[in-house]
Specification:
This protein is an alpha+beta fold. It has 2 domains: 5-131, Aminopeptidase (3-Layer(aba) Sandwich), CATH 3.40.630; 142-295, Aminopeptidase, CATH 3.40.630. 34% of the residues lie in helices and 30% in strands.
Length: 308
Amino acid sequence: MNNLLVRELMSGDEALWFELDDEAAMDSETPESDRRAGFLKRFKEKSAKDPRTFLIALDGSRPAGRLEGVFLDSETYFVSELRCADGVPVSIVEDALIGHLAGSFSRDGVGMFSSDRPRNAEINSALERAGFEIEKMKAYVARNLTGELPEPGVAFTYRTLAEAGRDEFIRLLTDASEGDPFEDPESREPEAEFDELVEMAAGKYDPKLWFAALVDGEVVGAVLPQEFADIKAEGTLFYVAVLPRFRGRGYGRALHAAGLSMLKERGVTKYIGSTDTRNAPMLRVFEANGCPQTSTQLFYRPPSTRRR
C-alpha cells in the first residue's frame, strides 16, 4: 500500500474512476447515466488542456484513490475533489496524489490554491507534508445581493472596454496597479494577465460589461463586474482599482459599491470577493460595503520554487 502508482487518468479507463463513487453519489437524485455523462464531458474538456486535472492512484490493479483538479489560471491549481477507496489509509493516498503533483509543479512553477475551511484541512496537511509552503493569503468575503445595497455616493460615468479598446484598457489596469505592495511590478505581464481574465470569464465574457470609471470626464479607475461562468447567480469583481493620483478620496469604496449594483442588475444574487490579508484599505472597503469575511484563501508554492 505504501507503493501506490499514481498516473493521469487516460481515455478508456474511466471505469477505474467510477469504482470510487461513494454512497452519496449512488443515492443522488441525479441519474447515474447523467452523472457519468457529466464526468465524461469534464474529463474530455479539462484533460485535453492539462492531463494533471485527473489523477488515479492504483494499488496494483485496484483503484485506491482519485483526484480531480482545475487550473484557475496558468500558474494556480485547485483540488476540487480528492477521494479514497473504503478501508484505505487516507493519508497514504493523499500523500501519493499530492506528491505526484509536487514533482510536476516544482518543474513548472505551478502553485496550489486552498483555504482554511475545515473540509480542506486534510489536503492542506498533505500539501505541507509534500513540501509546499504558504506564499500568500487572501481574505475571502461574500454578500447577498438580493436586498438593499450600499450607495456609491459618487456620480460616476463609464466607458466600456468595447468603447475604449483592449490596448487602452490594459494601460488603464496597469496604471491603476501602480504602487500595489502585494504585486511584483518586474514580473508583471499586463497583456497576459488581461487575457487570463478574459479566459476566466469564459462564456460570460462581454467587453460591454467591463468599465473604466470617470468623474467629471476624467478617468479615475476601473471596475470589472463578472458573473461566474460555471456557478449560476454568483459573481465577483475581477478588478476594482483607482489610479494613484485619485486615491484617498473614497473612490475605491464607491467603485466597489457600484460594482455590486452592476452584478445585481445582471441577476447575480451572491457576490464573492477576495484580497490579500495585508491589504488593509480593501479590507475596510469590504467592511464598509457589508461583505464579511467567510474564510482565508491559501496560496502554496511548490518546494523548489519557494522564495528565500
